[in-house]
């Protein structure tokens, strides 16, 4: 009889602990569920935020996007007419060079004029070390296979440049520059004279926004961090 009473007494003493344990486990389950719910809610808010940003981007007026260009120009119709006399007159005029570059960007072929500009700057180099550094930069940017802005050159011209790039001279890119110049003169320049960009200038009409592609990289003076260059020639 005494043994039975002791057993039931022990059982009653354990019961509150079991209830406490059950409540603790149950509470942890609720807490875990609550955390998961918060995480899901946060993910939904993030997705909603991204959706709103995308909608705002598509609703953004074209004139405010970085891929567009509507540049005020000081060019008079008389000056623009002179550009139509020859390709050389177009490139020798600062505004003509800028306008032609803008046109080439609409055709996704700005690497041609940028290569030509780089060669013009290169030929002004005087310091031997600068000649080596600039030649290497031009070669890696425009000439070598799969270059970021590779220009269209025949195999022989590229081969000659490749063999001499370790000991370049101021004339290392003459053949390539001449080839690219001819391509632009015979092809791009003809279309430029018929483009809205040029016709608007000679007619004195306001410049229209021009849709441009975004490029991962472009050729600028910043490419030559340790190279001295004639800043006046860069656009």
From TrEMBL:
Whether Iron-sulfur counts among this entry's keywords is: no
Please name the Pfam families in this protein's record. RGS
Task: Indicate whether Amino-acid biosynthesis appears among the record's keywords.
Answer: no
Which UniProt keywords are present, listed alphabetically? Answer: Signal transduction inhibitor
Q: Which InterPro entries match?
A: RGS, RGS_sf, RGS_subdom1/3, RGS_subdomain_2
Q: SUPFAM superfamilies of this UniProt entry? A: Regulator of G-protein signaling, RGS
Q: For this chain's UniProt record, which GO biological process terms are given?
A: negative regulation of signal transduction
| Residue ranges occupied by any RGS domain in the UniProt entry | 86-202
Matching PANTHER family: REGULATOR OF G PROTEIN SIGNALING, REGULATOR OF G-PROTEIN SIGNALING 18
Name listed for the protein in its UniProt record: Regulator of g-protein signaling
Q: Which species is listed as the source? A: Lynx pardinus (Iberian lynx)
């Amino acid at each position: 009889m005494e043994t039975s009473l002791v057993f039931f007494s022990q059982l009653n003493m354990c019961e509150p602990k079991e209830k406490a344990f059950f409540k603790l486990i149950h509470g942890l389950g609720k807490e875990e569920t609550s955390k998961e719910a918060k995480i899901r809610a946060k993910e939904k808010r993030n997705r909603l935020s991204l959706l709103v940003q995308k909608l705002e981007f598509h609703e953004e007026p074209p004139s405010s996007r970085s891929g567009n260009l509507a540049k005020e120009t000081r060019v008079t119709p008389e000056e623009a007419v002179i550009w139509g006399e020859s390709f050389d007159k177009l490139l020798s005029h600062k505004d003509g060079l800028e306008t032609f570059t803008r046109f080439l960007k609409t055709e996704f072929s700005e690497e041609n004029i940028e290569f030509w500009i780089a060669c013009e700057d290169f030929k002004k180099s005087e310091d031997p070390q600068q000649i080596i550094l600039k030649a290497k930069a031009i070669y890696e940017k425009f000439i070598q296979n799969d270059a970021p802005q590779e220009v269209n050159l025949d195999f022989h011209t590229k081969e000659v440049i490749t063999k001499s790039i370790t000991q370049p001279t101021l004339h290392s890119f003459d053949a390539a520059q001449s080839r690219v110049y001819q391509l632009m003169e015979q092809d791009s320049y003809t279309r430029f004279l018929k483009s809205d960009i040029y016709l608007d200038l000679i007619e004195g009409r306001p410049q229209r926004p021009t849709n441009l592609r975004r490029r991962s990289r472009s050729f600028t003076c910043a490419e030559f961090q340790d190279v001295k260059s004639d800043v006046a020639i860069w656009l």
